[in-house]
């Protein structure tokens, strides 16, 4: 593993093949990557980036992950969305953007990457805050989601607010705490939306300093108790960023989980 786990956020990676728009705002776009090699069409993999929903983090920090998945033969879309600190970001724009993008991207990718995208609901790969957004999309549009791979997701917004993760990031997203805007938490918090219908795998490193692994543990326990098809993979030597780093020791676990979700299609 690299000595600085954050190095993956700025590591150079191949440029995407094409960028498409799913809306009129400049942030309502996605980068598409053509799968490497021959082979039958596969369902689209939609990567939802993290960064605690803040404007300073965009989809490009998932370039190494997305390029590595394309090299494995997956058609990949890196979804962008309006974020806090941007016009229209936060509540509800960040959330509605992700729903709109997830719904539109299979069709857009099929046009842009002819013959490479199977006519099936996409698998969502979300990291950190992107994991929250992937779980949110799967809860609100289950028919548009074929499966979810949630990597260190912020799967309990009320608890994340209580812990003050990233200095008020949840309050910035939703406009306050659970006591201030309870209806927003009821709509946006994955912990309030169990059981999830699409098949879900959650992976979390126990050394994670950004999002405590206990959040995923409790979320998966609640989901299983409610009848969801969900499982948790805990990685004892992994921190937050190793899950999106193709050079990390965690990467085989990530690709194995994605393969298991794809094989369900």
TrEMBL record:
Lineage summary: Bacteria, Bacillati, Actinomycetota, Actinomycetes, Micromonosporales
Cited Gene3D superfamilies: alpha/beta hydrolase (3.40.50.1820)
Pfam families hit by this protein: BD-FAE (PF20434)
An MF annotation (GO) of this entry: hydrolase activity
PANTHER family: AB HYDROLASE SUPERFAMILY PROTEIN C4A8.06C
InterPro entries from the UniProt entry: AB_hydrolase_fold, BD-FAE-like_dom, GDXG_lipolytic_enzyme
Name this polypeptide is given: Prolyl oligopeptidase family protein
The organism's place on the tree of life at top rank: Bacteria
Keywords: Hydrolase
UniProt domain BD-FAE-like: residue ranges: 31-218
């Amino acid at each position: 593993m690299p000595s600085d786990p954050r190095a993956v956020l700025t590591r150079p990676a191949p440029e995407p093949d094409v960028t498409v728009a799913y809306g009129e705002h400049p942030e309502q776009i996605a980068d598409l990557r053509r799968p490497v090699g021959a082979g039958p069409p596969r369902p689209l993999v939609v990567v939802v980036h993290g960064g605690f929903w803040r404007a300073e983090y965009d989809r490009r920090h998932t370039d190494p992950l997305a390029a590595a998945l394309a090299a494995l033969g997956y058609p990949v879309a890196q979804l962008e969305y309006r974020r806090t600190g941007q016009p229209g970001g936060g509540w509800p724009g960040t959330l509605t953007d992700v729903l709109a993008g997830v719904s539109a991207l299979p069709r857009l990718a099929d046009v842009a990457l002819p013959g490479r995208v199977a006519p099936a609901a996409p698998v969502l790969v979300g990291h950190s805050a992107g994991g929250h957004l992937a779980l949110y999309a799967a809860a609100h549009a289950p028919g548009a989601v074929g499966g979810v791979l949630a990597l260190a997701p912020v799967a309990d917004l009320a608890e994340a607010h209580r812990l003050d993760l990233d200095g008020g990031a949840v309050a910035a997203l939703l406009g306050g705490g659970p006591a201030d805007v309870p209806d927003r938490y009821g709509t946006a918090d994955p912990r309030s939306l169990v059981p999830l219908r699409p098949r879900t795998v959650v992976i979390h490193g126990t050394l994670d300093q950004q999002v405590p692994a206990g959040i995923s543990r409790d979320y998966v326990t609640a989901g299983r108790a409610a009848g969801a098809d969900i499982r948790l993979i805990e990685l004892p030597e992994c921190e937050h960023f190793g899950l999106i780093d193709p050079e990390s020791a965690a990467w085989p676990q990530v690709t194995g989980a994605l393969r298991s979700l794809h094989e369900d299609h």
